[in-house]
């Protein structure tokens, strides 16, 4: 192997990392991750066995099926936030409602771990908004005012545009009344 061949893998890793960051920035990534992390303990704890020496402690309850359904729905909503971010508000509200329902149904919401993660994930999903494209962003302070494009200056101006010679004087001839009456 030559010394140059070791750097080739670093390029692919950096490209993959940049693609992941771009993908993550276009959707409510953290909301989906918290919602998925909230669904996992809610679905897992009712079916878990805890071994303490020779003694086995089983957490199964009569609401095991309800816990499994709530956990799977939360995981599905988290994936929906990632891959169909158009319905992020619906998914966020549904995640918050399922988190609240998990308190009485699923072992106090997965011992409050799943409840808190799902609640935070739903809130993040509702509050997430896509960023503006770079062409629509506010003007930067680095460029002097005189050198900015005209469209950028007009969009940022708070002063209304003045009307020139094409101003309709027929409306003033009626004394300000409407033509219909």
Give me the secondary-structure topology.
Blueprint: H1 8-25, H2 29-44, E1 49-52, E2 55-58, H3 64-83, H4 88-105, H5 107-111, H6 113-127, H7 150-156, H8 170-173
Antiparallel strand pairs: 1-2
Describe the structure.
The chain is mainly α and 181 residues long. It is built from eight helices and two strands, in the order H-H-E-E-H-H-H-H-H-H. The chain has a two-stranded antiparallel sheet.
Would you summarize the structure shown here?
The protein has helices spanning 8-25, 29-44, 64-83, 88-105, 107-111, 113-127, 150-156, 170-173, and strands spanning 49-52, 55-58. By secondary structure, it is mainly α. α2 (29-44) packs antiparallel against α6 (113-127) and α4 (88-105) packs antiparallel against α6 (113-127).
Taking the alpha carbons of the first and last residues, their distance comes to 91 Å
Strand fraction equals: under 5%
Largest sheet: 2 strands, antiparallel
| Fraction of residues in H or I helices | 55-70%
Number of helices: 8
**Beta-strand segment tally:** 2
Radius of gyration: 28 Å
Main sheet: strand order = 1-2
- Uncertain runs are none
Properties at a glance:
4% strand, mainly alpha, 181 residues, two-stranded antiparallel ribbon
């Amino acid at each position: 192997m030559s010394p140059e061949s070791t750097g080739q893998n670093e390029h692919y890793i950096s490209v993959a990392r940049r693609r992941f960051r771009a993908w993550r920035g276009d959707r409510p990534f953290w909301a989906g991750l918290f919602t998925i992390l909230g669904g996992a303990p809610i679905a897992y704890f009712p079916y878990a066995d805890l071994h303490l020496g020779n003694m086995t402690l089983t957490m199964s309850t009569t609401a095991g099926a309800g816990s499994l359904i709530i956990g799977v729905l939360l995981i599905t909503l988290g994936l929906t936030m990632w891959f169909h971010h158009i319905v992020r508000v619906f998914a966020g509200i549904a995640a918050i409602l399922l988190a609240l329902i998990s308190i009485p149904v699923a072992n106090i919401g997965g011992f409050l771990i799943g409840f808190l993660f799902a609640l935070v994930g739903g809130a993040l999903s509702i509050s997430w908004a896509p960023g503006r494209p770079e062409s629509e962003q506010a003007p930067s302070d680095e460029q002097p005012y005189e050198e900015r494009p005209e469209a950028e200056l007009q969009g940022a101006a708070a002063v209304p545009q003045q009307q020139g010679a094409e101003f309709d004087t027929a409306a003033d001839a009626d004394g300000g009344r409407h033509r219909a009456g």
